[in-house]
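Feature request disguised as a bug report, sorry. It would help if multi-protein outputs had a clear separator. Right now it looks like this:
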Amino acid sequence: MTMTTDRADPRSMISPGLFGRLTDRIVRDHDLPASMAERTMAQTLAFLATCARNPGAGLAPSGRVDIGWHTFLLYTREYAQFCDRVAGRFIHHLPDEEDDQQDVGAERIGVTVAAMRAAGMPVDTDLWIPTARCSQCYAGCADDPKAADHTSGA
């Protein structure tokens, strides 16, 4: 389960073609400039690699990084292959229920950013500042700690 990538550039975790398709999708779906889509996807890859190294930690993305995660999930085959390669398991996306969401967002983001730094991943601080809530999961998405032992996903 070793990851052979340049940690300084999370983009190296996937092919340039896939990176381009993902960022193009973010530009189209979220009306973001290409440079922001690229930053978003790079941080998403760094976040997912950190989840791979910390199974069961319940790490959470920022609202911006969650956009990248949702986009990657749309490419299920490539996402599953990425997960298998970097984690040896499927990294499940588990939204928190709205009733469970309290004032833990900033704390969870802080824990996640600390875990990314400990894993040697770059942190684009501007993308980890809390933004508006995700309409699908209230920005409470996390690597599913209950599924950390599972090797396949939905």
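(second protein starts here, but nothing in the output says so)
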Amino acid sequence: MFEIVAFYLFAFLTITMFSITIFTNNALYALSTLAAGMIFISAFFFLLDAQFLGAVQIVVYTGAVMALYAFGMMFFDSLSTVEEHIKNPRLVFLLSGIIALLIVIIFVSPVIGENVQANLPVHEQWGNTQDVGVVLFTKYLIPFEIAAIMLLVAMIGGIILAGKKMDLSYSELSEDEIENLEKEEL
């Protein structure tokens, strides 16, 4: 029963976060909800007793979204254009608190309740985490290293692009100066 309730709650939250990501006009809201959606996806791994994959989901994908968040803040100067229009902030605060409480209860209830081990095919000498590591660093070592190099190149490229015009802020420029800069970039 616990797994069914948790699955539907996390499914609803994940779909909600990604819907906000798609339909919002604010870059910071989109990146924040994208990171929250990635964290909620990791909850499915934890429900399936794949703790290693859940932790990797949080560290790798949510970390990548946070790096994207930082680049978004640098590129778009989004803080100058944020205008909040929340009609009832107390209701939003109350609903956010209730959702946070439900998530905490869902994560804590298996620890408090019975510890029932699933019949998963785990190697006798070591656990599931070690099995994933052995396969990752033997059979899939080359794709793993290629992905790491691609991420490194993307990070260096992002840093170079961000550093080109760090001395300019669009919030301090007039509309004519912004148009001239955009024409120069083309």
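Even a blank line would do. Unrelated, but nice: The mean pLDDT is 76.
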